From TrEMBL:
Record protein name field: Peptidase family M23
Residues passing through the membrane, by range: none
Domain of life, per lineage: Archaea
Residues annotated as signal peptide: none
Pfam families per record: DUF8155, DUF8155_C
Gene3D superfamilies for this protein: Glucose Permease (Domain IIA)
């Protein structure tokens, strides 16, 4: 069974990704991470809150020690939401867009990952507390593919990431966009996570002109490659769909060494 998220739900958020995570539900796009405006946590679902639970998160120096799980009965499935310290409780009825609480930067996050809401769905007879078992997700938007020649200028940086000014969103706010791949768009952490996704109409996983993986029913297994910026290896590239702004995001400690205004050429090299 597949669950589809409609465009009205998705347009509440600045960005989304089905595959850009190392955790099990994202391996085949059976969960989605939704990135809202800063300081907000709008619910992507309507229904009755079944339970909220505090869970331990992996210890990370930049993150909270605990995360939170919110379970919502949508009338057709159980929605499973993470990374929000809830202000809702069991028995509350919520509508789509209602505030859920405060976003939490949990130890499940890589250091370059911004705050977001994780969403998955379960059948009623499935255990909603386990990490595995979520249903396959589809999105009722067709992201616009943006072509890219592998070059750009560093627009902004953090300790473990740098975002380039290209490819840029042609009309921010109007539609979701992603990095072009043979007519579709690539999604996921490339190549630092084992798998990614190919959304839309694409049939081959191509990064800036180089074929980089094998596609099977939307899920891509990345080839063994290294991404380099100006000849220096970086951990990889964070790929997602965005409605507000775009630009390739390089991740890893060496990506954080890049400086704003620096010209960058990104290449993909096969591992020996």
């Amino acid at each position: 069974m597949t669950v589809s998220l409609d465009s009205d739900t998705l347009f509440q958020y600045r960005r989304f990704t089905l595959y850009n995570s190392p955790y099990v539900a994202h391996d085949t796009g059976a969960a989605i991470d939704l990135y809202p405006e800063a300081g907000t946590a709008p619910s992507p679902v309507a229904g009755e809150v079944i339970d909220t639970r505090t869970v331990d998160a992996p210890p990370k120096p930049y993150a909270e020690a605990h995360d939170h799980l919110i379970l919502v009965d949508t009338g057709t499935h159980v929605a499973r939401l993470l990374h929000v310290e809830p202000t809702v409780e069991a028995g509350d009825h919520i509508e789509r867009g209602d505030p859920l609480g405060t976003l939490v930067r949990a130890g499940f996050f890589a250091p370059w990952v911004p705050n977001h809401i994780h969403l998955g769905f379960r059948d009623y007879d499935a255990n909603p507390y386990r990490a595995s078992g979520s249903l396959r997700l589809t999105v009722a938007v067709n992201p616009t593919p943006l072509s890219w020649d592998g070059t750009g200028t560093v627009l902004e940086t953090g300790e473990t990431w740098a975002r380039l000014d290209s490819p840029s969103h042609p009309d921010p706010g109007s539609t979701f966009v992603g990095l072009e791949s043979d007519g579709g768009v690539l999604d996921g952490g490339f190549p630092h996570y084992e798998r990614g996704g190919l959304l839309g109409d694409g049939t081959r996983a191509v990064f800036a002109g180089t074929e980089v993986g094998s596609d099977s029913d939307r899920t891509v297994t990345w080839d063994d490659v290294t991404v380099e910026a100006n000849g220096e290896p970086v951990r990889g590239v964070a790929l997602y769909c965005a409605r507000d702004s775009f630009g390739i995001k390089l991740v890893g400690e060496t990506a954080g060494d890049l400086e704003a205004g620096q010209a960058v050429s990104v290449t993909v090299c096969p591992d020996d």
